[in-house]
Amino acid sequence: MSTVLVLVEQFHGAARRAGLECLAAARITGLPIVAVVAGDGAEKAAAALGKHGAGKVIALTGAPRWSPDAVARDLAAIAKELDAKAFLAAATATGKDVAPRVAALLDSTLHSDCTGLRNEGGSLVATRPWLAGKAIATLRSSAPVFCATTRPNAFAATETGGNAEVVTRPASADGKSVVTAIAEKVGGKLDVKEASVVVSGGRGLRGPENFHLIEELAAAFGSAATGASRAVVDAGWRPHAEQVGQTGKTVSPQLYVAVGISGAIQHLAGMRTAKVIVAINKDADAPIFKIADYGIVGDAFEIVPALTRAILEARKH
Amino acid sequence: MKIVACIKRVPTTEAQAKVGADGKSLDHSGWQYMASFYDEIAVEAAIQAKEKHGGDVTILTIGPSDAAKEVREFLARGADTGVILKDADWMSRDPRWTAKSLAAKVQAIGADLVFTGRVATDRDNAAVGQMLATYLGWACVTEVVALELEAGKGRAKRETEYGVESVEFSLPAVVTCNKGLYEPRRASLKGIMAVKTKPIAEEAPVDSGVQAVVVSVEIPPARKAGRIVGEGAAAVPALIAALRNEAKVL
Ligand SMILES: Cc1cc2nc3c(=O)[nH]c(=O)nc-3n(C[C@H](O)[C@H](O)[C@H](O)COP(=O)(O)OP(=O)(O)OC[C@H]3O[C@@H](n4cnc5c(N)ncnc54)[C@H](O)[C@@H]3O)c2cc1C
Ligand SMILES: Nc1ncnc2c1ncn2[C@@H]1O[C@H](COP(=O)(O)O)[C@@H](O)[C@H]1O
After folding, report:
1. ipTM of the complex
2. Residue A24 has pLDDT above 70, yes or no
3. pLDDT band at residue B232, thresholds of 50, 70 and 90?
4. Which of A18, A186, B78, B141 is a plausible cystine mate for B156, CB 3.0–4.6 Å?
């Protein structure tokens, strides 16, 4: 029977939310779902995937080190054994690393970073942004296997209450590249692509020493990530992993707060799909206000601390 | 070492999107072009690898003859040879098609190291480098922010959502370059003069048939204009109320 194969990313035995969202996307295909988890903790992460719609979970175990080409080889082999009709992964750093290799091994093209998926009379149709979201394309594929990655935050991870059969399978040994170490982020800091709230700062903050204001506001929201404009990344005030925009990361959080960011077209390209946009800028004519749902005109140094206190207060109730 | 840097001609970031007459493409009229942002870093990585380890650098692009402008710029920065696999439809090819065409040429060149951008800023596939390596049967490290090469192998760092990964890989390899790896150099006047009349080879790309089928292209509706809730810290309560009661995100 044809199936949809899903790479569900996990870390330390817990499925990552982007992986669960990908399972939600897989359910749209209407095909039976086979999920694959790999790496340290795979077996532990496998158990919870039935609830998210996986009928079967294959845990790739025993690999001494993570190797994207080895994982891709295993996924392609499983896809062939199952005669999978589709292969999905989340468009995270790991998913983007592995999925194109799986697609190539299946000699199939890949639709990257999809924001929508439909089953039209048995044929899968994906929607995805072009030009950083300036256009949205609707695509089919004549490939032997429909391969796609799903954009984090574009599909809602929901539980269906099912139960999955879990099997283990020995992972392929080291491939041509292996991960030898991971310097984990301290304090489990969220990435801008994954977080449901992103608070970004721009040149209006005047210097790196003032970004504690952005960090404190992000912390007040609970699970928020801190982002930045390219101007402050280029100036070395913030790490480039935080850059939002056409040449940085494209984010679709529930809430995006832009502080001291003018709203250049290249920045807007990276955050225009946020559900709600808030802008704080001292210039009432700043272009960011043309796209923001709610704006406050004024000095960030006065407004942000007040907003941080108010958010903390509001979340108590 | 035989080194290749793959570059793609893409519209500048200011380009406006307009749907073409067929409803399935973008109208390119009025667009200006540039080499994709990350490809500048790929070229810099290729030139630095040559400077450290010897060899030569080929700039390889699938695109129109006009891409000679970008290729020549990179020759002026220190690359040795430029090749255009001439294709008027380069922007609508899918990543499999592009990777297969590049793979055939990389093999013909006899390269052992290929640099690409992490993503081309037109279709935002972030896939061609990985697919190219897979078709070649090579190692591939993606979104690289630090790189060291030695005989037959390399070490790299890449950023993920959960931290920075250290990766060891064997050569030959494809490395996809991220911001932070290197700062692209500028061409010197001497370099520009030296390559002014340098021939850039044009060849036909291998055509493996496009699999991605465009059904339609749309321009997303502009966001509804929002409102200024007020000025200064005094406006904070109004913002909180709006986020809680209207937007329902608190
Ligand atoms: C090829 C290319 C790619 C690019 N890619 C990106 C990208 O990916 N991401 C990106 O962000 N940019 C990108 N840019 C750069 C972009 O064009 C802008 O230069 C950049 O976004 C500006 O950053 P900014 O808003 O922080 O700074 P500015 O434009 O300088 O804006 C600072 C803002 O802060 C406000 N301000 C000043 N003081 C205060 C205060 N005390 N309180 C409140 N507000 C204050 C000002 O009114 C102003 O609006 C790219 C550009 C090019 C050419
Ligand atoms: N038409 C092309 N010609 C040469 N290189 C390309 C082409 N398309 C993509 N690439 C390379 O592959 C990288 C990733 O592209 P993409 O997967 O399309 O985002 C680019 O940064 C280039 O280095």
Report:
1. 0.95
2. yes
3. very high
4. B141
* Ligand 2 atom with minimal separation from the B119 CA: 19
Chain A with chain B: Cβ pairs closer than 8 A: 277
- Tens of pLDDT, residue by residue over A184-204, are 887 667 899 989 999 999 999
Distance of CA A128 to the CA centre of its chain: 14
Contact list, A293 vs chain B (CB under 8 Å): 223-224, 226-227, 247
* Residue A241 DSSP code: G
Dihedral (Cα; B158, B163, B168, B174), 10-degree rounding: -20
Q: Measure the CA angle with vertex B187, ends B181 and B191; round to 5°.
A: 135
Enumerate residues 6+ apart whose C-beta is below 8 A from B30.
B15, B16
Which residue's CA is the closest to the ligand 2 atom numbered 23? B116
**Mean pLDDT along residues A150-172:** 95
Atom of ligand 1 nearest to the CA of A247: 8
CB count within 10 Å of CB B167 equals: 25
Least confident of A180-194, B160-174, B205-219: A180-194
Report d(CA A173, CA A158) in Å as an integer: 34
Q: In which element (H, E) is residue B229 found? A: strand B227-231
A292·B226 Cβ contact <8 A: yes
CB contact set of B45 (below 8 Å; sequence gap of 6+): B5, B115, B147, B175, B177, B181, B182
Q: Give the phi and the psi of residue A43 in degrees, each rounded to 5.
A: -65, -40
Burial A22-44 (b: 16+ CB within 10 A, else e): bbbbbbebebbbbbbbbbbbbbe
- Mean pLDDT value of segment A297-301: 98
pLDDT tens by residue, A69-110: 999 999 999 999 999 999 999 999 999 999 999 999 999 999
What's chain B's Rg over C-alpha atoms? 21
| Residues of chain B positioned with their CB less than 8 A from the CB of A132 | 121, 124
The number of the ligand nearest the C-alpha atom of B143 reads: 2
Residues A105 and A5: beta-carbon distance below 8 Å:
no
Mean predicted confidence (pLDDT) in B52-71: 98
Strands, E assignment, chain A? 4-7, 10-11, 14-15, 33-38, 56-61, 86-90, 110-114, 116-120, 123-130, 135-141, 146-150, 165-170, 177-184, 197-201, 224-228, 255-259, 276-281, 294-297
What pTM was estimated for this model as a whole? 0.94
Q: How many residues does chain A have?
A: 317
Cβ contact A149:A41 at 8 Å: no
Res. A10: pLDDT tops 60: yes
In angstroms, rounded to a whole number, what is the distance separating the alpha carbons of residues B39 and A129?
A: 21
Among candidates A144, A22, A9, A33, which has minimal Cα distance to A80?
A144
The whole-chain average pLDDT of chain A stands at: 95
Whole-angstrom Cα distance, residue B126 to residue A225? 23
